[in-house]
Amino acid sequence: MKLPPKLKATKLEYTFKSDVLFKMLFVRNPNLLKRLVAVLLAIPLGSIDEFIITNTEMPPEEIGKKFCQLDINMRVNGNQVNIEIQVRDEGNYPERVLFQWARLYSSSLPSGNDFALLPKTIIISILGFKLFDSPEVHSEIGAMEVTRHTLLTDKMGLHFFELPKLKNVESIDMSSEKDLWLALFNAETEEELERLLLSGGAVMSEAIQAYHSITATDEFKNLEWMRRMTAHNEATALGHARRQEAAKWQGVTDALAEERDAALAENERLRALLAQLEN
Question: What residue ranges do the domains of the chain occupy?
Fold first, then answer.
């Protein structure tokens, strides 16, 4: 029996990998953000007594700037927590995360206070690329001795969630809220959203409803367009710089080749002259 042709997937115009959508959705729905943080850090939701977003602003003039970072900073039960989604691998993400952690950690101590009062600082990175050569979706990095694995301090926590390592939405464990959230961030088609909506329970329903509400607004569309244009301009400028560098080195290579050919020709002339003198 011949099977019917598989229906073509409908690509989402906007995905949850958009950092503009990520910040707008969770700043405007802090209950969803609180739930996401609890799930990703594997802490009971009911244990979170303090939950404050400390950088809710999204000024358009900043979004259009190069290197603007649309992350979310929070205070969670006295800890500093930062979360962001990063799609492109620019080759320096580990260094960037360490810099970000150090900046947050050092800035949280008022002048003159004891270093012991520094809060635990946690960075959560949801990545659209593979960072580690391992099959695990989640990696947690802390500060410890490399041989004995003795913990230096519990005040550093770096969590990485690599979306390309996630199973497709048809294969995930629908009873795992962590898998549901990661599948939502990884979704590329209307059909994937529909499956999560039907099988993911009340939390996924609320998140997807918030997604549709925000992506329908002119505010979001304008900010997303600005963000995409900024990324396009950055890529264009980088490509131009690389072409200029390649042309410069090509010029150097050509000049060296000309010098080599001239030297070889001069050697041939001298050998011919020497042969004439010997005869």
Answer: 19-216
